[in-house]
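Standup notes, structure subgroup. Blocker cleared on the NAP input:
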Amino acid sequence: MRVSLIYARSENYCIGDRGELPWSLPDEYAHFLRTTAGAAVIMGRKTYEDHNSYLSGRVNIVVTRNPLMTLATHVLRASGLNEALRLAERDSDSAFVIGGSSLLAEALPLATTVFETVVHAQLRGDTFVEPFDFSNWHSQQVAVHPADMAHAYGYTVYRHTRRLAGEA
Ligand SMILES: NC(=O)c1ccc[n+]([C@@H]2O[C@H](COP(=O)([O-])OP(=O)(O)OC[C@H]3O[C@@H](n4cnc5c(N)ncnc54)[C@H](OP(=O)(O)O)[C@@H]3O)[C@@H](O)[C@H]2O)c1
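Run returned:
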C-alpha cells in the first residue's frame, strides 16, 4: 500500500493552535480534499476532534490509546499507526497520514510521497511539525496561491517523492 503524508505548515512550522488550524484557507482545504479523495485518511485523536466528523468519500481512521473513545459512524479506531495501516489496507491501496505532529513524524519513514503546503507567514500556535529534511527527495512545486480576499496568507504546495535506492 502507498503511504503518503499531507499537511500544511507556516514558515516557522506551526500547524495548529488551540485544537484548530491557525488559518482559514479554503482553496488549500479543497486541495487537501481533492488529494485524499478515495484513499484512507489516518489521523491522531486531536486532529479528529478538530472536525469531529466523518470526512466523506474516504476511509477514516483515528489513532488513540483510549479504547473507549466515541467516534462518529463509519470512523474506525486504531491503537497505533501499524493497526491503522492494517485497517486502511482492507479497503484501500493508498493511505494518507494527515497529522498531527507525532503521527506525521512516525509515518515519515514509511511514506513515499509527502504533500507539504508552506503557508507564507510566521504564525503563533501551540502545535508544530518537525522540519523534515527533503534534500534527498525529488521536490516539485505543484501550486502557488497568492493571498486574496478569502485567503489571508499566500501559500505554496510541494510534492516530495522519495528517491528509489540507486536513483540519482
Ligand atoms: N496544518 C495541518 O496540516 C494540520 C494537520 C493535522 C492537525 N493539525 C492541527 O494540529 C493540532 C492537533 O495535532 P496534535 O499533534 O496536537 O495531535 P494529534 O496527533 O492529532 O493527536 C494526538 C493524539 O493522537 C493519539 N496518538 C498519536 N500518535 C499515536 C500513536 N502512535 N499511538 C496511539 N495513539 C496515538 C493520542 O491520542 P489519545 O490521547 O486519545 O491516546 C494522542 O494524544 C490541531 O490544532 C489541528 O488542527 C494541523
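Discussed briefly. Residues 7-8, 15-16, 19-21, 43-47, 50, 63-66, 79-81, 98-103, 106, 127 surround NAP (CB under 6 Å).
Next: hand off to the docking folks.
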